[in-house]
Amino acid sequence: xxxxxxxxxxxxxxxxxxxxxxxxxxxxxxxxxxxxxxxxxxxxxxxxxxxxxxxxxxxxxxxxxxxxxxxxxxxxxxxxxxxxxxxxxxxxxxxxxxxxxxxxxxxxxxxxxxxxxxxxxxxxxxxxxxxxxxxxxxxxxxxxxxxxxxxxxxxxxxxxxxxxxxxxxxxxxxxxxxxxxxxxxxxxxxxxxxxxxxxxxxxxxxxxxxxxxxxxxxxxxxxxxxxxxxxxxxxxxxxxxxxxxxxxxxxxxxxxxxxxxxxxxxxxxxxxxxxxxxxxxxxxxxxxxxxx
Length: 292
Fold this sequence. Notes:
By secondary structure, this protein is an alpha+beta fold. The chain is 22% helix and 55% strand. Helix 3 runs antiparallel to helix 4.
């Protein structure tokens, strides 16, 4: 037999054998994959191990489900009204110490996010107070609004406007405006990392009445890692060159679907503190977080 004809015959027989060996996904397995939710990849992996002849069909099913989920998500975002798709969390933390000093501290904050088809809105507000032996030693409030225009799932433009009061850092009022680009460097089910950068403008009124206007550059970082199903590590930081940098590192443990406990460590550094004030303040907090 001609060698070429023999080779073609072998390839054809092999292909036909592969087709014959392929099996449809058993209905019970398909139902299990469709109902797997966030565990679909794990369930699909086990299904392929137990039904190797259906591996290609299982991969096709999982890919089709992912495509459909994304299409459904885009459709929901397109239909959403201005009061739809808001998510957020409220946080309340209290600290009390006795002994050489008697310190009472309280922090209340709220954060809201709305995802749209092209736009993302973020709102944040915080009130932080502390007294030591009856004397106020921390007095900080802030409110921020950030608007993102999304080019795709990762790249976006941002605009940020914020107000802050921190009398123990030396200013009674500070407005900050910034705009630039953002990019989601990591975006998986368990990991996320967003970076932002752009020019910024600040208008500060100090406690003594002096006013300062500055043009600077702002960089921001937001990181989150779901270490386990209940434990999450997060880091949020922002730097305004020549002015200020802030950092909040937190471990959050989910107690149930809505309520979590959190331990966090805050750092606030002012490049030009008033005379007699330290440049860096830190705070460690225990708090309860309610998600909605």
